[in-house]
Write a structure and sequence with these properties.
Layout lengths: L1 H4 L2 E7 L6 E4 L2 E4 L19 E7 L5 H12 L5 E5 L9 H8 L13 H12 L4 E7 L4 E9 L4 E5 L7 H4 L4 E6 L2 H15 L4 H20 L8 E4 L4 H17 L4 H11 L14 E3 L4 H11 L5 H20 L4 E7 L5 E7 L4 E7 L3 H10 L4 E9 L6 E7 L2 H4 L17 E5 L2 E2 L3 H8 L4 E4 L2 E2 L1 E8 L13 E8 L5 H6 L1
Parallel strand pairs: 1-14, 1-17, 4-8, 4-9, 5-8, 9-10, 11-19, 14-15, 17-19, 18-20
Antiparallel strand pairs: 2-3, 3-5, 6-7, 12-13, 15-16, 21-22
Helix pairs in contact: 2-8, 6-7, 9-14, 10-11, 11-12
């Protein structure tokens, strides 16, 4: 149980551009301009993922249609193409031998591990992580490895049985069937299996006549009645245009202006009472000692040289991480000193501690975490504002293995980590800033910071080239600036 696992996740704030394309066989994760938030200002999931199911005969062009949809959509949030081929059941040694001899029917509905298929798709639709099985056609076997997927705004599921199961159909927002001539499907299958899967022509034809064609007639073709649209397997550009127009319209209807709600709630809420004490026990501010105030004075000074800035940022990062460590569970431990006397002390009572940096300004905090916990696993997130709307977008996710592979619990957040196991560490927060929304949405998350400034100011941040020169007019993004603040910490630290 995760409640007994005592795994904690540190979050800090960093930012940098990092776009990723991940492909495993037919499963593709395409990241373009980012994924909008899937938790609202109330802390509840915004399940606005758009799911498309594409069915059709073997080699009818399902994967091609899926990729054409993605191309036609152009600049869209993160898209996942999820192939049914990954969900073939694990075979026994005898079944593998039959499969290599083209004597095993893998085109029947019961060849697919439908409960796992439906569970993975349901997790992605509900904005949770999932781990997709990996199937080897060369070995006719599901492999032990899995592929991590997370954060899709659009999911395209394709496979011969994609419309067969009611459990899958209930998850789709749009159901598509690819209709193709049988002779063309056979020709495509021969070409594909010989070139990509190492099969012989005779073996492909024998398998097609024995299993593939009967399965198409009995199980696949009848599912066309469930489709919202039937697409030809050849010369289908008009159908693709209709589908992408529909998707754009539906996605536009689901747009949520998160930034506006976040700002309005921030103004209504205040971090501290009239005596200056935090309103929440989960907001932890470092003691405002003369030493700490001196460090912030140096960091706020725009004339400070870079060497001094880096030195004092590193000192502050270590202070913040050490403060965060105080809020991890500890247990008693007895050790024997060099003088052979038993001494009762403390040790961490956690199974996994990992860090997740919100790049780019979170980089210095990562260095502080590594000083305090030398062997800590660290991942990263990239969250930036849309250049035109100012809406937050998730552009990059790379999480530590302990988060990606752990068993999901429905009582926990989308990576299986409970709220009270997360400590958010940041150099600075604003009294009426977005942190108030974070506290309202996730009241059990602890926030550790070094200082609290008075407020935020909306501004336009120009983009700069490597020489520090501003780019052409119109290039930049809307941002909120903490005042008095410390400027762009990541830029000052790394440039």
């Amino acid at each position: 149980m995760l409640a007994e696992d005592h795994s904690h996740e540190f979050l800090d704030d960093e930012s940098q551009h990092s776009l990723e394309s991940h492909q495993s066989n037919k499963n593709v994760l395409l990241k373009s301009h980012g994924r909008p938030p899937w938790y609202g200002e109330d802390g509840l999931p915004i399940c606005d993922v758009f799911v498309i199911g594409i069915a059709g005969g073997s080699a009818s062009g399902k994967t091609h249609v899926a990729r054409q949809i993605v191309r036609s959509l152009g600049s869209v949030p993160t898209v996942v193409i999820l192939s049914q081929d990954s969900f073939y059941k694990r075979l026994t040694a005898e079944e593998v031998a039959l499969a290599h001899a083209n004597r095993l029917d893998l085109d029947r509905p019961d060849a697919i591990d439908m409960p796992v298929f439906a569970a993975c798709l349901a997790d992605l639709k509900a904005c949770r992580q999932t781990n997709i099985p990996v199937y080897s056609f060369a070995e006719h076997q599901r492999l032990d490895e899995v592929k991590y997927l997370y954060g899709a705004a659009i999911i395209i599921t394709e496979g011969i049985m994609a419309l067969h199961y009611p459990e899958l159909r209930s998850l789709y927002d749009l159901k598509v069937f690819v209709q193709c001539d049988s002779d063309l499907m056979l020709a495509r299958r021969i070409q594909r299996d010989v070139k990509e899967r190492g099969r012989s022509v005779d073996g492909v034809i024998e398998q097609y006549l024995r299993y593939v064609k009967p399965a198409y007639d009995n199980f696949v073709l009848p599912t066309a009645r469930h489709a919202d649209i039937v697409v030809p397997g050849l010369n289908n550009s008009v159908a693709i245009d209709l589908i992408t127009t529909h998707i754009r319209r539906k996605m536009a209807e689901r747009v949520r202006h998160f930034r506006k709600h976040m700002v309005s709630q921030s103004i209504e809420c205040c971090l501290s009472t009239s005596d200056g004490n935090p309103v929440s026990k989960n907001i932890i501010v470092l003691p405002q000692t003369p030493q700490l105030k001196g460090i912030y004075t140096i960091l706020r000074d725009g004339t400070s040289n870079r060497q001094d800035f880096i030195f004092f940022v590193d000192r502050l990062a270590t202070f913040l991480i050490e403060k965060a460590m105080e809020h991890l569970p500890h247990r008693p431990k007895t050790v024997t000193t060099p003088t052979e006397v038993d001494c009762i002390g403390k040790e961490l009572d956690v199974k996994n501690v990992c860090g997740v940096s919100i790049i780019r300004s979170g980089g210095p905090l990562t260095r502080g975490l590594q000083r305090v916990l030398s062997d800590v696993a660290i991942g990263s997130l990239l969250v930036q504002s849309d250049a035109h709307t100012g809406e937050p977008l998730l552009l990059h996710v790379m999480l530590p293995r302990c988060l990606r592979e752990r068993h999901l619990s429905r009582r926990c957040m989308d990576h299986g980590v409970q709220q009270d196991h997360i400590i958010f560490v940041t150099f600075l927060i604003a009294r009426t800033g977005g942190v108030t929304v974070l506290q309202r949405a996730f009241p059990k998350v602890k926030i550790v910071t070094g200082a609290v400034d008075e407020g935020l100011r909306e501004a336009w941040l120009e983009r700069y080239n490597e020489k520090g020169e501003g780019q052409s007019e119109g290039e930049g993004k809307k941002v909120w600036i903490i005042e008095p603040g410390m400027g762009q910490i990541g830029d000052r630290y790394y440039l």
